[in-house]
Amino acid sequence: MNSPLHKHRVVIVGGGAGGLELATRLGDSLGKRGAADITLVDKNRTHVWKPKLHEIASGSMDMSAHEVDYLAQAHWHHFRFRLGELTGIDREGREVRVAPYVDDEGRLVTPERAFGYDTLVIAIGSLSNDFGTPGVRGHALRLESKADALRFHARMVNACIRAHAQTTPLRPEQLHVAIIGAGATGVELAAELHRTTREVVAYGLDRVDADRDIQVSVIEAADRVLPALPPRMSAATEGLLRKLGVDVHTAAKVAEVLPDGVRLADGRILPAELVVWAAGVKAPDFMKDIAGLETNRSNQLAVLPTLQTTRDENIFAIGDCAQCAWPEANGGKGGFVPPRAQAAHQQASHVAAQIRRRLAGKALGPYRYRDFGSLVSLGEFSTVGNMMGGLIGGSLMIEGLFARLMYMSLYKMHELALHGPVKVSLDTLARLITRRTEPHVKLH
Questions:
Q1: I want to staple 39 with a disulfide (CB 3.0 to 4.6 A). Which of 29, 45, 80, 177 is the partner?
Q2: What's the CA gap between 20 and 96, in Å, rounded?
């Protein structure tokens, strides 16, 4: 599919876990040899692994040690990076259209542009789904991006300082955090906040009593936390959360988010100064039927087993924005690949191989999701999970240090795909050394 006058153009839209890994793999192979032109397009300048956002929000992660600059990554791994947000696809002309990029001061950085492709890969990830719940847009925070996480952290620290400085009694909602959605993000954020808010107060905000004044609540519409995971894992996680003092409300549907709390469908009102919406998953709204491609109710692109979109063989979709069949799910009854980082990682590897097959004129092979289980980190308190459930025909429940090591290994796999073993080993050693001398919670 190459010619002497035209290199095959691969454009990847979205620099999340799957998109950045794919660009790096293709750059190190096809790009380095000059066999294809690889371009990554993203609306941000830097990448942070999305499962780490709850650590940024709570202040327990030094973002500078984990952030990847797209321009630098492109330089070292033989692909191009272009800044901008996808606005449309011209399938006939094989171009993607990208919106102008304007900085925080309102100045134009890049104009509206179009990039030609021979193979296009959509990897734009997902957003939370508020299902039209009143008050969410106006009063709730989300954890969909680095900016969201930093915004929450700033408001959390300011809330603690405000409570310490005021001379009047605390209002009912003050220093209360309500997290709507008890999936992995909500559960992990609740556990991290229990620890980090207490450490923030310990830095001299002595007029705040952490045990008396600070309250974290998790609200879930299903009858258990982590409803997509095995019941044993849900029970163990809920027990740990309650032991930490987190209020857990299951079978509790949110009717409205208020300026100072949450109103449930049964009429109860939970006071809260900070409300986080962490429920539901969907692709961005502009993806609905984009360029005539087939999408589902969650705006995900329908894909074939090869991960090509159903209506255009030149367009692939991977990660959370793809609706990919999983025939082995539910005991062989079928289902769809879940929106997890491990799925994006696997799909990036698969599509990298398929693009090389396309250039060689070979037939493409089907993608098979391999379920290595699920892990949920409760900060320094515990990690719980089920391992290899889809491979051994059962669920191996794990907790404690081994589970925590396995959780850490998921992130190390992502880092290895981006940087290779030498850099990851040196960076890990440096983090271990500096961690012993730096404060555990960041206040900026």
A1: 80
A2: 18
Token look-up 């060689």 returns 360
365 DSSP 8-state letter: P
What does pTM read for this prediction? 0.86
Secondary structure element (H or E) that encloses residue 110, with its range: strand 108-110
117 with 358: CB under 8 angstroms? no
Cα–Cα distance, 8 to 6 (Å, whole number):
6
Residue with tokens 């062989």: 332
**96-106 confidence digits (pLDDT tens):** 999 999 998 99
Nearest Cα to 115, choosing from 44, 38, 31? 38
CA-wise closest residue to 186 among 344, 73, 7, 58 = 58
Nearest-angstrom CA–CA distance, 100 and 110: 5
For the CA atoms of the chain, what is the radius of gyration?
23
Asked whether the beta carbons of 351 and 25 are under 8 A apart, the reply is no
pLDDT, residue 393, reads 45
CA-nearest of 207, 358, 359, 182 to 276 is 182
- Check pLDDT > 70 for residue 397: no
Q: Is 440 helix (H, G, I), strand (E, B) or coil?
A: coil
The burial class, CB within 10 Å (0-12 / 13-18 / 19+), for 263 is: middle
Q: Are β-strands 95-98 and 86-90 bridged in parallel, bridged antiparallel, or unpaired? A: antiparallel
First to last CA, the chain: 50
Nearest to 138 by CA among 274, 257, 57, 220: 257
Q: Which two tokens stand for residue 322?
A: 């793809």
Is-contact 343 337, C-beta < 8 A?
yes
CA angle 403–406–408, rounded 5-degree value? 110
Q: Are 182 and 218 in contact (CB under 8 A)?
A: yes
**CA-closest candidate to residue 351, choices 18, 35, 16, 115:** 18
Structure tokens at 38: 């690889």
**Which percentage of the chain shows pLDDT scores above 70?**
84
- Averaged pLDDT, 234-241: 88
Say which DSSP state 52 is in: G
- Structure-token pair, residue 293: 């491609």
Cβ atoms of 346 and 370 closer than 8 Å: yes
pLDDT for residue 219: 97
